[in-house]
Specification:
By secondary structure, this protein is an alpha/beta fold. It has 23 helices and 21 strands. Strand 18, helix 18 and strand 19 form a beta-alpha-beta unit. The longest helix is centred in the N-terminal third of the chain and has 33 residues.
């Protein structure tokens, strides 16, 4: 081999066994450097750790044997088919190896007395036989790569396979790369941390990940690699947090005064202690000189809106603007109506900005003006042209519906503004620490008093009559009903039509006499506002709708939620929808009406909904079914993708990584100390791109 300095970040083609053609196809698959190749991780391992004696081989089982070639050659069946046969022995018996296809290359490969490792599945025959086994010749200077040990299986594609880059091919080149570059792999964790936590070097771990000595060694190596991934993520979080909290000054609001007190007094209820505590956290941040970055989590119906309103009141009485951004137009309309009610008596302007608002220029002018006010809006708030002067507080409601980028955009130009993000999705702890690691965290873990649990029932396909009766029953008691139709992009037109048809049909019947309304995303702003108003005043008893009411909509008198085609909804969606009822004093019901057959996953979802009302358990379940990427729609949202860390588990590793990282940044925020040099270098080289999008403020 040449002795020139080997660069781990150099072209993958420098690895022995990779020519220009292989190099090109690897690069096409994202494997550009030697390091990329070493970080190409097996998707699973075959357990070939035991050598079995031929005499002990059982039929129809996987096994590895070490045996000597006794005879070999072509053989023809009676049907004139050509086979290749090799008999091997280890003195406990004879094993027949048989090939039906691709026999040509075998001829001339074997000699009597050759010793082979052979792995494969035995046939069902009485005498031991393996068809198309894997085999390797025993060699003095190389361990078997394919037949003995925990054998790595690599992800591959049809195109890669054309260049012999199946698992066998990857094993070969990765073994070359590991052998040749081992001493140049470098270290990514400072020695003091490795010592303290008893972690192996990066090189050793990578070696074990590809060619593990044992299950234990593999587990240990994977954990070590997971730790490093999480450690770097937390380093980024710690740096960002430091920059926002310590290095940049926020607004130091005066303590809550008359306005906050008066609005508090005007409420028809007393805040729960969980709400008071959350508000205390928020006021604490706002009145300090640091920038607030706080996540407020509370299950559907726990009363987050009023907390946001009271936080806004503090910014407003200090002469600043407050903005609440929500994911849907309908929710914006509703918040707008409620906030006007709450703030109007105190002569505070409430402004609505959605895509449907007609005179945008007039609104933009007011936002750019000097007067304090409360702004409610959708994505329209972050369109170019919007410029909010003196924004003191930004609230993002139903945060999980927005991208990370968007939450940055809202405070763009108002770097000192406080930021509160709210979500009803109970985020499992590891995920919360991953996604909001630089945020402080408050939780409303208590429901307003007097709430009764919502009863959930499943109505099978064909039970329209019963559902209709249930609706009438609630209407007769003067309670209100939501009927929700699914709406998905690919079949949007038909979906919408189904809701409209149902509305038209019911309007001319008994339900129509009691008051029926329609609400969907394609209606004009005025129509939506009118429907909401009439529902909230009680004029509309039954609201036919699509998923536009999924988040945020609030009407305490609504006691029945009928979800049509429940099998088409996701779990979190169903939980959100169910959360629209059970908000008042009366007992509420949720009917999950099926309109088709249930898939297995659909069955699981419906069962989970019947089993529990606990949003936390439902979220964890959802996370398991769909995985984190889907769960949060994180692909678009710049969520880091890990090779080793499992953010649905690994809580302890994350915790350790976080503590270590935050500790380092607190003492050495610029990473200028000698022992932190490694972190600085690795961060700059390998991680800056990975975590860029998670920048939040
Ligand atoms: P979410 O947390 O899902 O956004 P909302 O803020 O919409 O919940 O509140 C749900 C309902 O509970 C609203 O009707 C609201 O007025 C009511 N509510 C909020 N806080 C309390 C409280 N402390 N006591 C009684 N009702 C409350
Ligand atoms: Mg809400």
């Amino acid at each position: 081999m040449n002795t020139k300095y080997k660069d781990i970040d150099g072209d993958v083609q420098y690895v022995k066994g990779i020519g220009p053609r292989k190099g090109d196809v690897l690069k096409k698959h994202g494997i550009k450097t030697v390091r990329d190749l070493l970080f190409y991780i097996p998707r699973k391992y075959l357990d070939r750790t035991q050598i079995t004696k031929i005499g002990d081989l059982a039929p129809d089982r996987e096994g590895t044997v070490l045996a000597e070639v006794e005879s070999y050659g072509f053989k023809y069946t009676r049907g004139r088919k050509r086979l290749y046969l090799v008999n091997v022995t280890d003195r406990t018996g004879i094993l027949e190896l048989i090939w039906f296809r691709n026999t040509k290359y075998l001829d001339g490969l074997f000699e009597e007395g050759d010793v082979l490792y052979i792995s494969g599945k035995t046939g069902k025959t009485v005498f031991p036989q393996m068809a198309h086994p894997e085999f390797e010749f025993l060699s003095d200077d190389k361990d078997p790569l394919h037949t003995l040990g925990l054998i790595p299986m690599y992800p591959t594609t049809a195109e890669l396979k054309k260049f012999h880059l199946d698992s066998r091919g990857f094993r070969r080149i990765i073994r070359e790369a590991l052998g040749d570059y081992y001493d140049h792999i470098g270290e990514d964790l400072p020695e003091n941390i490795r010592k303290k936590l008893k972690l192996q070097t990066q090189a050793e771990s990578l070696h074990q990940v590809h060619f593990p000595e044992s299950e234990e060694a593999l587990e240990r190596a994977k954990k070590r690699m997971a730790f490093a991934e999480l450690f770097y993520m937390e380093i980024m979080m710690a740096i960002r947090r430091h920059r926002i909290r310590v290095a940049s000054r926020g607004i130091e609001f005066d303590k809550p005064g008359a306005l906050v007190a008066q609005i508090g007094k005007s409420l028809p209820f007393k805040l729960t202690s969980a709400q008071r505590k959350a508000l205390g956290d928020i006021y604490g941040d706002m009145t300090s000189g640091n920038c607030m970055r706080r996540l407020l989590q509370g299950d559907v119906g726990s009363g987050k809106t009023i907390v946001a309103a009271l936080a806004s009141a503090l910014a407003i009485e200090n002469g600043y603007k407050a903005a609440i951004m929500v994911p849907t137009e309908v929710l914006a309309e509703q918040h707008y109506i409620n906030m006007k009610r709450l703030f109007a008596d105190f002569d505070i302007e409430v402004i609505l900005l959605t895509g449907n608002v007609k005179d945008k220029t007039a609104v933009y002018d007011r936002l750019a003006g000097g007067k304090e006010c409360l702004i409610i809006g959708t994505h329209a708030l972050i369109q170019s042209g919007v410029n909010i002067y003196k924004l003191g507080l930004a609230v993002i409601d139903e945060q999980h519906r927005f991208g990370v980028r968007q939450r940055v955009d809202l405070i763009e130009g108002n770097r000192r503004a406080d930021l509160l993000v709210m979500t009803a999705t109970p985020i499992p702890r590891t995920l919360a620490m991953t996604m909001y690691g630089d945020f402080d965290y408050s939780i409303i873990d208590e429901m307003p008093p007097g709430r009764l649990p919502v009863k959930t029932m499943v109505a099978s396909d064909g039970s329209e009559r019963q559902v209709f009766d249930a609706i009438m029953e609630h209407v007769r008691r003067d309670e209100q009903v939501y009927v929700v139709y699914p709406l998905v992009e690919i079949s949007e037109k038909q979906d919408l039509q189904a809701a409209v048809d149902a509305y038209e049909k019911l309007k001319h019947g008994k339900i129509g006499e009691c008051g029926i309304g329609l609400l969907h995303g394609r209606m004009s702003s005025e129509e939506k506002e009118q429907a909401l108003r009439e529902f909230s005043s009680g004029k509309i008893k039954v609201l036919i709708s699509t998923t536009v009411i999924e988040v945020g909509i609030d009407s305490p008198n609504a006691t029945l939620m009928v979800v049509i085609g429940a099998e088409r909804f996701g779990l979190s969606q169903l939980h959100q929808l169910r959360g629209r009822v059970g908000r008042g004093k009366n007992k509420s019901t949720c009917i999950l009406k099926l309109t088709g057959n249930l898939s297995d996953e659909g069955k699981q979802r419906i069962q989970a909904m019947e089993a529990t009302n606990d949003g936390f358990r439902i979220a964890e379940f959802d996370l398991q079914i769909r995985g984190p990427g889907e769960f949060f729609g994180t692909r678009q949202h710049g969520f880091p993708e890990f090779k080793f860390a499992d953010i649905t588990g690994d809580y302890r590793i994350l915790d350790t990584a976080r503590k270590a990282a935050f500790d380092i940044i607190e003492k050495d925020p610029k990473l200028s100390g000698a022992e932190n040099r490694i972190i600085y270098d690795n961060l700059a080289k390998y991680y800056s791109g990975v975590f860029k999008l998670t920048e939040a403020g």
